[in-house]
Amino acid sequence: MILLARVFEGPNNGLAYAVAPVEDKYKIIPTKDPLLDAANLYAKGEKVLILYSLSTPLFVEIWRELIAVAGRFPVVAGGPHAAGDPITLLKLGVKYVVVGDGEVALPAIIEKEEGLSDETPPNVLIMEDGKVKAGRRVYTELVYKTYSEALGAYPPIEIMRSCGYRCAFCQTWAQGPVRYRPLEKVEEMVKVYVKKGRREIRFIAPVGFLYQSKDGKTPNIDALISLLKTVREAGGLPFLGTFPSETRPETVTRDVLSALKNLLANKRLSFGLQTASERLLKLAKRGHDVATVEEAVVTARAFGFTPVVDIIAGLPGEDEEDVVATVKTMERLAAMGARIRMHYFIPLPGTPLWGREPSPPHKLYTEFAKRYRKKVEGYWEEQIQLSRRIIETYRQISGYLSRTTPISKAS
Ligand code: SF4
């Protein structure tokens, strides 16, 4: 069995995570032309399985390719989009949709493809005789390496999976109970990264400063110190609390920063306000208020960090009053020394806000971004286009599915 991993421009982190646990056992070949490469291997008598790791932005780019490939070869799709909308992927012909931890799913899928098992693989949905079948749900410990030598991909090290919060625009918390990578497993990976000359160690964590938090909400300062010291002792430079391990405003406290200040390699700390409308903060289930974010900005500055505050324009139901409150708060935060990272609401399948229309981009946001251009960052204008594209793609898919009933011919 050869695994063809569909790679795209960019870091391919999700794919590295997917293949890492099996790459010692199976041959992994990266591909940018899965139809051609699979056909060539098939002609030589090889069995192939084609792997996709899908975010929603990627899915809307390549859904037609997915139909073409899945119509001829067995396809496995995982990633946040697969977990968010597995049924559409099955209807488009994907044979195995991974909706939970991939570490246990992929080996079982391979066994099934090789005829060694009849079971529906764990954490996987399949379609049989027009009916969806679900494998049992299994939550793994974070003990598997997450880099892939076969793909040459060394993503940030995942130290925390899932989230104890339930923000209505976010897909992350649907990953099951919160789990942390044990420190010794982090250390093993850091040593490999440093040996490869990758001294800058970044982490993936939904909330960076909640690594090893006992209740998923209160920073475990001893564990954070141990994490950062371990990285430094292994020769690495730890970046935590900044992309892609942004944190929450409640975790940016004097206690945390005085403990971590001299251990962190980053000078920026990123956390979300998202909106300054207390009404929308509640609707989005953020679990903090505006004052908490202002305190976090003051605290970060007091310890010499540059606070970077995330804002989401266009949340569903956002009205003029919400926009005015948010723009005023952004002006205040900028005057306090924060940078503002602007986003536009992206509807993501599987989230409570999926199906709700984004509010149109308000001109007050555009004017703010112009006036404060030296303090504003982010890709919010591109996200306006992306947001529209997701909605439009789903309209097209709905039309496509009503005209056709694609069934995977792959065996
Ligand atoms: S705190 Fe962050 S990761 Fe957790 S649910 Fe909210 S947005 Fe998602």
Quick tags:
Rossmann fold; Transcription Regulator spoIIAA; alpha/beta; 14 helices; about 400 residues; four-stranded parallel sheet
Word description of this protein:
The two termini are 13 Å apart. The longest helix has 24 residues. The protein is α/β, with parallel strands linked by helices. It folds into 3 domains: 138 residues, Rossmann fold; 106 residues, 2-Layer Sandwich (Transcription Regulator spoIIAA), CATH 3.30.750.210; 112 residues, Transcription Regulator spoIIAA, CATH 3.30.750.200. The protein is globular, with a radius of gyration of 22 Å. It is 38% helix and 17% strand. It has a 7-stranded mixed sheet, with helices on both faces. A 4-stranded parallel sheet has the order 13-14-15-16. Bound molecules: iron/sulfur cluster (SF4).
CATH topology of the largest domain: Rossmann fold
Stretches where pLDDT is under 50 for at least 5 consecutive residues are: none
State the name of the first-level CATH class of the largest domain.
Alpha Beta
- Gross morphology is globular
Q: How would you classify the helix and strand content by structural class?
A: alpha/beta
The helix fraction, in percent, is 25-40%
Number of strands: 16
The profile of the biggest β sheet is:
7 strands, mixed
CATH superfamily of the largest domain: Cobalamin-binding domain
